[in-house]
Amino acid sequence: QSALTQPASVSGYPGQSITISCTGTSSDVGGFNYVSWYQQHPGTAPKLLIFDVNKRPSGVSYRFSASKSGSTASLTVSGLQAEDEADYYCSSYTSRNTWVFGGGTKLTVL
Amino acid sequence: QVQLRESGPGLLKPSETLSLTCTVSGSSITSGFYWGWIRQPPGKGLEWIGNIYHSGTTYYNPSLKSRLTISVDTSKKQFSLRLRSVTAADTAVYYCARNVDYAFDIWGQGTMVTVSS
To answer: Are B22 and B6 in contact (CB under 8 A)?
Structure first.
C-alpha cells in the first residue's frame, strides 16, 4: 500500500494559519471518514489531534481543525504558536482492513 | 490513566527474529479496542505494522505479512510482535498504540531497535 501524500514542509508566522494537505485514493481517504492526524515533537511519540476526519479528542486545542474533500484531507492550525512547530502525520483506514500513514509534514513557525 | 510500554532487545543481527512486547496498564486489554504496532525508521515517517483484537483477530501490513506475527496474552495484559528475518531496513523506533475509532489514541514511548552485524 502506498503512503498518503503530504507536503514535506510548511511554515508560517506566529498568529497566522496554515493548512496541511493529505492526498490518498478512493480506497482510503476518499472511501472512509476515518482520517486521523497526529503531531510529533522530536524524540517523542505521536499525539492524536484529530479522528474521524474532523473530531478533536478531549484536551486538544480548538486551534486544530480538519476536513476532507474527495480523496484529500486537510489539517488547519490557526493562531500559530511556537509550540506548534513539529511533524504532522495523517492516517487513514483502508479498504483492505489496514491503516496507512502519510509521509509527514514538518511545520516551521518562523 | 491508560499507559502502554514497549519492551524487548534493542540490537539484533541480520536474519534474526525481532520480538517486542507491549504491556497495557490502567485499562483492560479486553475492553473492546484494537491494539496496534507502528514503526518509524530514523529520520523517516510512520509505518503501520499491524493490529490485534483481544480475541486474536489480526490485521497486518501487506508488505510485512510474510514475516510478521502479532499475538495477545490477555492474562498478562500484553500483546506482542514477532518479525522474522530482519534486515537493516527494519531498524526503527517501534511504538505500540491503542486503536479506537479507527485512530491511534494512546501510544507507548517507543523502543529503538537496531539491526546491525
So the answer is: yes
Is the pLDDT at A1 greater than 80, yes or no? no
CA B25, chain centre distance (Å): 16
The mean predicted confidence, pLDDT, of chain A is: 97
Residue of A nearest to B41 (CA): A103
Q: Which residues of B touch A106 (CB under 8 A)?
A: none
Residue A21 pLDDT greater than 80, yes or no: yes
Express each pLDDT in A75-93 by its tens digit. 999 999 999 999 999 999 9
Question: CA A95 → CA A27, A29, A30, A101, B100, distances in Å?
Answer: 5, 10, 10, 14, 17
Nearest CA to CA, how far is B53 from chain A (Å)? 13
Q: A89 vs B45: CB contact, 8 Å cut-off?
A: yes
Q: Are B50 and B38 in contact (CB under 8 A)?
A: no
* Contact at CB, A103 and B103, closer than 8 angstroms: no
Of the listed ranges B23-32, B47-56, B99-108, the one predicted with least confidence: B23-32
Query: Which residue of chain B is at minimal alpha-carbon distance from A57?
Result: B105
Q: What does the DSSP assignment read for B38-61?
A: EEE-TTS--EEEEEEETTS-EEE-
